[in-house]
Amino acid sequence: MDERQTRAKVHEMIDEIPVPTAAVNAAIGRGVAAAGKKRHWGKRLVLAAAVLVIGTAGAAAVNPAVGQAVSNAAWLGEFYLLHGGQNPARAFHVNGTATALAEQVTSHGLTVRLVEAYYSGKEIGITGEVTGMTHAQIYKNGEDELGLDNQITPLPGVEADSLDFAPTKTGYRFTETYRITRAKAPTSVRLPITITHINGVRGDWRFKLNFRQKPAVTHELSGNYTLRPGVTLAPLQAVKYSQGAELRFSLKFDQEQYLDAAITDIRGADGHSLLDLSNGFDTKNGVNSLPLKQLPNAGQSYRVRLDYQLKTQKRGHTVVREIVLVPKATGGK
Amino acid sequence: MALTETELALAQAAIAGDRQALSQLLQRRGDYLYRTAYLYVGTQADALDVIQEATTKAVSAVRHLREPGYFYTWFTRILIRQAQAVYARRQRETSVAAVPERVAPATDPVVALDLGQALAKLGANYRQVLDLFYYQDLSITDISGVLGIPEATVKTRLRRGRAALRDVLGGDYNG
Where are the transmembrane segments (chain A) (predicted)? Predict the structure, then answer.
């Protein structure tokens, strides 16, 4: 059998693999819907970031972390505002959580320079730029997609999450985020990054970054709250990180009756929202993780907002319930 | 991968932010996308996860696509990257739980069952190379670029992969 026949036969056999068409279409639908939720957060974030950038323009002089970061790369603020996408890098850039980096490696004519990074909660973010690329390398195949093949050398519990980028005259600027997949975020992480290809250019760009944050404090929660008939909220854990906090909960709703249901806000008696809109909402194995600006106060009642849509209706609705998320007796560990 | 006129119009709409158009585009080639993902991850559940996650990434990234005619090539690259991530995740989980690699149950065609079994025996490294070479029609150089491995390694995996498929391929094939 020659090469052409082999190719035809293998191709033919692969085409025989049965396809669960309905499930594929449903997966595409879920993928689009998931992006919709994230974009919703993103829109609010753009506005919040704009306010923050304007509001903290003078803060750089008094906050060493911000000042250092800005001096490392003057383009950071604009990049985060226009191209930062859905990650919280820009918020951490202006509030000083992010630290400036000066890591640079050149290989095969291309230079990768890392200028800023943060480690907060379960997320690591790294911002940098690639320079030295030709126009043809940047716009490979007529697209401005950055082919940055990042490999984290075997590191259990850390995975690459997202990549935002913007082309420049000689390369790209990018923010890459990594997510801790363990139940608990470790105090320190050593993250080796190996980049082997950039838009088809093979090279060897290696970095070893060390991150630290204060240990998280976890409060175990209990209780079941019926937010409306067929929708039950069960708070599971409240976790305090060095920056911000996280509420883990289970939200169960009657799939026969509801098209969708989600917690969209948590407010204290003072009217301020607890939600940290600079970060994304995460769902894994039925447990929702909602980033918060701070830990809910023990014994204090919060207004929890549920947005839901019934299958029989075309419009969504809202219901608000007063709930004590963290009972007074709960102790951290 | 060439686009039809309808697909080209849908791709233009998708780039302009029409999610319905993006969804339709992906559904039109759902079979191809599923098989590509399946060959990487080896199970139906994981293949569907890959498609879902790749779709989510595509929704936010499609505005960067300059040439609508490259839509499927562009999306396939996202899909492959996502499949690699899911596969790596499963490998870590498997190494902890020591669960043997699963294969989605093939339904009717005997040939699909044979191929499924043969591919399962191969392991993901070989499946990936065979997929890229025979199904995506990529060159060895391109595969080397996509997977980030030397061309010699691609050739070795291709040779071993073909040899392992010999029984299914039949004939006088020599690996």
Answer: 45-62
Q: Which tokens in the block code for residue A165? A: 């980028």
SS3 at position A214:
coil
Furthest-apart CA atoms within chain A: distance in Å: 77
Q: DSSP code of A242? A: S
| Token reading at A287 | 């447990």
* DSSP code of residue B104: P
Which residues of B are less than 8 Å from A15 in CB distance?
31, 35
Contact residues, chain A, for B19 at CB < 8 Å: 32, 35-36
- The residues, ordered by sequence, that sit 6+ positions from A236 with a Cβ below 8 Å of its Cβ are A220, A221, A248, A249, A250, A287
Between CA A132 and CA B23 the distance in angstroms is 37
CA nearest to A58, candidates A83, A94, A99, A91 = A94
Residue B170 pLDDT class (50, 70, 90 cuts): low
Instruction: Encode pLDDT of B19-45 as tens digits.
Output: 888 999 999 999 999 988 888 887 888
Question: A145 vs B77: CB contact, 8 Å cut-off?
Answer: yes
Residues A30, B59: C-beta atoms closer than 8 Å: no
Q: Which domains does chain A have, with CATH numbers?
A: 28-212 (2.60.40.1630), 217-324 (2.60.40.1640)
Which among B42, B14, B47 has a CA at the least distance from the CA of B31? B47
- Percent of chain A at pLDDT > 70 equals 73
The CATH number of domain B105-175 is 1.50.10.10: no
CA distance A134 to chain B (A): 17
Residue range A28-53: mean pLDDT, rounded: 46
Neighbours of B24 (CB within 10 A): 16
pLDDT value for A131: 93
Whether B35 and A6 lie within 8 Å, measured CB to CB: no
Beta bridge partners of A150: A195
Cα(A290)–Cα(A276) distance, integer angstroms:
8
Q: Is there a contact between B169 and A143 if contact means CB atoms under 8 Å apart? A: no
CB contact under 8 A, B35 and A86: no
Q: What is the pLDDT of residue B99?
A: 32
Residues of chain B with CATH 1.10.1740.10: 1-104
In this prediction, residue A115 has a pLDDT band, given cuts at 50, 70 and 90, of very high
ipTM, two decimals, is 0.79
**Lowest mean pLDDT, pick from A66-75, A128-137, A209-218, B106-115:** B106-115
Give the pLDDT confidence score for residue B97 in this predicted structure: 39
CA distances from A325 to A168, A197, A217, A269 (A): 47, 47, 16, 13
